Amino acid sequence: QVQLTESGGGLVQAGDSLRISCIASGRIGNSAVGWFRQAPGRKREFVATINWVSGGTLYADPVKNRFPISKDNVTFAVHLQMDNMKPEDTAVYYCAATEPKSWTFLTVRVGEYTTWGRGTQVAVSS
What we know:
It is globular, with a radius of gyration of 13 Å. The chain contains no helices and eleven strands. The chain is 0% helix and 49% strand.
């Protein structure tokens, strides 16, 4: 059973950068590991995802070209580098993983992710 732990959240100003990380314990395999976020009063939404084996990625339009996702097979970490941050990026950010599927598998659907971390708070002031 994989467990996910997020870290690196905090308060930044608009235009700043922040990196949040997700450390996985247990075997991930051919899973997609993604980041989602949830702002107060809003539904949880997809941010970015990466396939653990192939490194293929997928991004939500609001963060494309601003929030590159990467993985480290040595430390079992998935990082989300958040650049040129905006107040609308304020949310709790969650790391999540799917069941092992294939080395090409990627999905934006919340329901496909079966393991979740507890989240890390990110706030961006204007």
